[in-house]
């Protein structure tokens, strides 16, 4: 097939090489950005007197029609084209004749692809941030409902101290707030226009890069043309941010999977987000959470792929860089789906507060409070810790719990124990006494909810 760039070479490329070289299969999704960029470019060329105003009008009108035709499905994208940039330019020239060939003046596919990718990813970052904020809102709403639901808080996956389920959910809201913050920050650096860097060295034409960037809504322009065409930091940064976001979702997935097991029985997922087994009739599997956990691995792979492709690449553009797109598109698509799934899963989750409470009552998770009780009565903490440990050991051996162990028994360990100890080791008291800022008390949870909602 004759190439637009045929000139230096006369012989045809092999069919296999064409297939190998082509990126249309994955870069066609940037058709809108490509056309928008070309319209801005034509406008700039006319403003600078590099092409006629009439010619620019013809180019822009037809580019808009091409955009409409692709969007409506009237113009199918030719999968035999080399990439989306070539496809649009070829279609334009087919429609308007020779004037179409003027569009690529003072431009290269190297700055064009860098521009398109930035614009495409900036839009996707906006969507992903908006979705993540919805998820944060869903978590916060649930946290409000369950701000007084006691559950065991864990360290080492051993019951540690009682916390409210709402407090636990808000921990994830905080993580996701940071994710939004990171992606927003990444977008700030992405918001720099590379167009006008041309192939690598700039151009001899009297272009106006600021005008072109401004039309496209960019905040600034790349100040070094070599860097402008070969910078893919924004891809790697976004991939890192998404990898962290997925890591957070994966941790929550793991907890949801544990919580919905028979062993925990803390939550039940809606049927809309679970599957059955083809053989075991009793099963209700948390496949969605498992998939999010699994897909996190895949997103890490996308990040490693991009880092590895860029490593050791000499300046400026190298075809290796075509490999930047599939991974980042996959990561954005995966994260976007995962966040959406989570919004539904969290909003419909049923919480078994009774089971959570029962589990909280059985793990001696008020033993710290028992030690604190003695400390407040004047005993040094280390001694109080030791005595409380011995009482727990006695209870375990004799099938007792701290809440119902008789006062006489307590007195065998220390004279400081009085009737008011029962109040201090009551689970609700234990939780609400943890009223330090960021603690698990109801009051603190309410403060956290206000904090999160203010950020949304
Ligand atoms: N399809 C290419 C990419 O995705 C476009 C840039 C090609 N430039 C070039 N000089 N071959 O990176």
From TrEMBL:
GO terms for cellular component: cytosol. Pathway: Amino-acid biosynthesis; L-arginine biosynthesis; L-arginine from L-ornithine and carbamoyl phosphate: step 3/3. Its EC number is 4.3.2.1. It is found in: Cytoplasm. GO terms for molecular function: argininosuccinate lyase activity. Residues 364-432 form the Argininosuccinate lyase C-terminal domain. Residues 7-301 form the Fumarate lyase N-terminal domain. Pfam families: ASL_C2, Lyase_1. One of its GO terms (biological process) is L-arginine biosynthetic process via ornithine. It catalyses: 2-(N(omega)-L-arginino)succinate = fumarate + L-arginine. Keywords: Amino-acid biosynthesis, Arginine biosynthesis, Cytoplasm, Lyase. Belongs to the lyase 1 family. Argininosuccinate lyase subfamily. This is Argininosuccinate lyase. It comes from Ruminococcus difficilis. The lineage of its organism: Bacteria, Bacillati, Bacillota, Clostridia, Eubacteriales.
């Amino acid at each position: 097939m004759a190439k637009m760039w045929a000139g230096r070479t006369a012989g045809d490329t092999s069919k296999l090489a064409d297939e190998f070289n082509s990126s249309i299969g994955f870069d066609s999704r940037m058709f809108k950005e490509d056309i928008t960029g070309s319209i801005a470019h034509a406008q700039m060329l006319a403003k600078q007197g590099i092409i006629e105003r009439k010619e620019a009008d013809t180019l822009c009108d037809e580019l808009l029609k091409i955009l409409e035709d692709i969007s409506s499905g009237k113009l199918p994208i030719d999968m035999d084209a080399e990439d989306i940039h070539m496809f649009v330019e070829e279609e334009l020239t087919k429609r308007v004749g020779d004037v179409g060939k003027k569009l690529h003046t003072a431009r290269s596919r190297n700055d064009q692809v860098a521009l398109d990718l930035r614009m495409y990813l900036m839009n996707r970052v906006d969507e992903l941030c908006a979705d993540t904020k919805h998820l944060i809102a869903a978590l916060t709403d649930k946290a409000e409902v369950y701000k007084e639901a006691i559950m065991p808080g864990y360290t080492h996956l051993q019951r540690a101290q009682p916390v409210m389920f709402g407090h636990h959910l808000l921990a994830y809201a905080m993580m996701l707030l940071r994710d939004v913050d990171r992606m927003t920050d990444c977008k700030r650096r992405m918001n720099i226009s590379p167009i006008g860097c041309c192939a690598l060295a700039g151009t001899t034409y009297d272009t106006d890069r600021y005008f072109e960037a401004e039309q496209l809504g960019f905040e600034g322009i790349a100040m070094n043309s070599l860097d402008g065409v070969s910078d893919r930091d924004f891809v790697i940064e976004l991939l890192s941010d998404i990898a962290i976001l997925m890591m957070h979702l994966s941790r929550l997935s793991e907890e949801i999977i544990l919580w919905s097991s028979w062993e925990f029985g803390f939550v039940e997922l809606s049927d809309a987000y679970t599957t059955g087994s083809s053989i075991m009739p009793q099963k209700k599997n948390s496949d969605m959470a498992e998939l999010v956990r699994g897909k996190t691995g895949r997103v890490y792979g996308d990040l490693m792929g991009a880092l590895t492709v860029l490593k050791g690449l000499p300046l400026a553009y190298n075809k290796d860089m075509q490999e930047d797109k599939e991974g980042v598109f996959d990561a954005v698509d995966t994260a976007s789906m995962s966040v959406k799934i989570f919004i539904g899963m969290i909003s419909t989750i049923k919480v078994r507060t009774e089971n959570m409470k029962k589990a909280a009552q059985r793990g001696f998770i008020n033993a710290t409070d028992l030690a604190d009780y003695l400390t407040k009565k004047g005993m040094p903490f280390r001694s109080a810790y030791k005595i409380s440990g011995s009482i727990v050991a006695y209870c375990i051996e004799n099938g007792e719990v701290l809440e119902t162990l008789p006062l006489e028994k307590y007195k065998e360990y220390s004279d400081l124990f009085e009737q008011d100890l029962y109040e201090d080791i009551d689970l609700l008291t234990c939780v609400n006494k943890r009223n330090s800022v960021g603690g698990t008390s109801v009051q603190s949870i309410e403060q956290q909810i206000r904090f999160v909602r203010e950020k949304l």
